[in-house]
Amino acid sequence: MKNSLIVLGIAAMAMSCATPEESKIDYTTMSDAERLEAATEMARSTIMVDGHVDLPYRMKVGGFTLQREILDVSVRTDGGNFDYPRTKEGGLDAPFMSIYIPASNQAIPGASKALADSLILMTERLTETFPDKFAMAYSPADIEANFAKGIISLPMGMENGAGLEDDLANVEYFHRRGIRYITLTHGKDNLIGDASYDTTGTHGGLSDYGKQVVEEMNRVGIMVDLSHVSDNTFRDALAITKVPAIASHSSVRKFTPGFERNMSDELIQAMAKNGGVMMINFGGTFIDSAYAAGAGKVREHLVNYMVDNGLSRTDSAFQAYAAEYSAANNPFPTVERVADHIDHVVNLVGVDYVGLGSDFDGVGDSLPTGLKDVSMYPNLIAELLKRGYSKEDIEKICYKNIFRVWKAVEEYAASRK
């Protein structure tokens, strides 16, 4: 049965590939309405993978635990950027569920692994509660099979290798639990290496333990994720890994000078040489330095306004004022800016090394106009078509590039057994 589903999935994927006739379509000559219609059809008929969606931690922050009912994302939700109806509207098929470990957990031995286990169970519970809508996915083949059935895949990546604690055996443990990439660090340096947000430079890059972690990830078949790491950690990891790496949710540093969390041209070129894929983060502070600079000033003003007027963030009067003030004083970037980041990577190294890593449910109210939630991917695809991207290019960005890396990691791991 499983093999037949995989065959169906492969067939469906083959059907989504551009025919010679489709590849000749000049989307640049279409009207905006026609192009959006074509983009919407493309999004819904093509497998789409997003490298980073923070739904599990959104549920935790919302007070949902293993002892309570999970957030019902089978229906349209008022908050957040992700739910089933909007996912289907936008054509998203495989959002990597982020098993996010805050850097603060690193100060408590055992806390990082315990939280990772909890969020994995919460993700699994989603698929058990809504089996007609969601299913776990541990490989590209699983995603293809789920796609053929019209079910949303929930692959998992661990954001912050602190979840491994100080035990190398946990790499294989988390592979068994379904983790398919590990972001080596997060907000602070950890036992593995140095983080981009931390200026301490504890290890000068990867630690000796971190080098063993990368090798073990290669051995068991977990993708090495270099979002959040310092430049030195990035270079060290690429020097050690025997397979392509990813950046699950990073953007281009050219548009945010001095922001080490994003990738420099040097690192983009190094990742392409490695055969990896850079998945573009949609967050406003990641894609536009002017917006990032303005966000801090707006935030300070709004906090003062709340205090001066005896309001809270949940008061409707404050929310209305905040929306109006923010729009007037620091307008959101637009979907075009995300396309600029994709353009930059493509112009620098080619279309084979870029993907989508939205960071939905993880970047708060900073998302660009036209990309506010998972229903809006067609707006980005339409913008890329307007700029001359082909259907085959879109397929590479949506899933073929990340599948190529993932399969290479699987094949290397299989060869080590």
Please explain how this structure is put together.
With 417 residues, the protein is α/β, with parallel strands linked by helices. It is built from 17 helices and ten strands. It has helices spanning 2-16, 20-23, 32-45, 55-61, 84-90, 111-129, 140-149, 169-176, 208-220, 231-240, 265-274, 284-287, 289-309, 316-329, 335-349, 377-386, 391-415; strands at 49-53, 94-100, 134-136, 152-154, 156-159, 179-183, 223-225, 246-250, 277-280, 354-356. The strands form three sheets. It has a five-stranded parallel β-sheet with strand order 1-2-5-6-7, sandwiched between helices. It has a three-stranded parallel β-sheet with strand order 8-9-10. Helix 3 crosses helix 16 and helix 10 (231-240) packs parallel to helix 11. The radius of gyration is 21 Å and the shape is globular. Mean pLDDT is 92; it is low at 1-16.
